[in-house]
Radical SAM core domain-containing protein
Amino acid sequence: MHLLDILSLRPVPASAVFLSLTRRCPLSCRHCSTSSTLRSEEHSELPFLRLVSSFTSGLHPRLVLMSGGEALLRPHLVERIAARARESGTGSYLLSGMFFARQARIPAPVRKAIEAVDHFAASMDAFHEEEVPRRAVLAVLRALQAEDRDISVQLTGLSDDDPYLAEAVGDIRDALGDQVPILVGLVGPVGRAAKWADGRRRILTHRPMASVPAPCTMAAWPVVTFDGTVVACCNQDVVDRGGGVPAHLRLGHADRDGWPEIRRRSVTRPLLRAVRAVGPRAVATLSGLHQAGDYCETCRSLADDPRAAATADRPVFTLLEREARNRQLAEGPAGFARRFGSARYGELVGLGR
């Protein structure tokens, strides 16, 4: 499964689901969007397993994407989820901060987890490199590449003209023979970076990807948060609220709601459809509402006023959502990467295809 295959699904509602397996992480990167530590929250594995067990051959997402924190702190859970997903026809993706690359050998449980998934992505940036040397990460990726595994790099910088990005991109391409795709994003004011990052910057977090355009592609893939709450988008403020999210963004809980119900709510809920079609600011304007702050804050406020719900019930949004999705599909994965990550490096998602 190439990175292009994954990104091509991004505009399609409920074509994939994110699983936030743990907030814990052994690294302490200064830009961490989840503010993770080794003492961060970690809940039962049962909600994640129950949701994936509700997939059937006739009704399942195309892809599950596992992240954290550091998902490979729970390697056996990663392995079980990937195996169960495959039984129903669902592919699996895993993103890691590569803490284990500091060791001479990949620990056996970690290796088994990596071997279990259909695509493995390594997160790399100047902040990770303060704790995990780039050469160590590239050595692991070269070994996986030699085994013919589908891999990619999720590279993050401060801006399109960040010298670090130019240097790292060149190093990665040289080390991996220009055959491994690179998804480049920019640090935004989320988690630990909220104290210092430029609030105007687009954001690529540990989930591909978070940003602030309209219409909202981020409301396409549900997210199972750390405690099993299922929310409609990957905005970190929404994920961190768990059960306290606004009603239109709460899709249920993996402990009691299976995939058929989660999918139905994601695809058919009028406010989500309208947000995917034209974005929350347009919905607010059409409803005669005051825009409550930025793009995402406006979205979170829509559930507070019945006028927004009345606007979203208009049949036209079904057509507008379809048109918005088709436009994004026509742009392709590189277009998506340019809009939501780095415009300069968007084409790198196609390396190795």
Confidence is low (pLDDT under 50) at residues 200-213. The chain has 14 helices and nine strands. The domain at 3-268+332-350 is CATH 3.20.20.70 (TIM Barrel). The chain has one domain: 3-268+332-350.
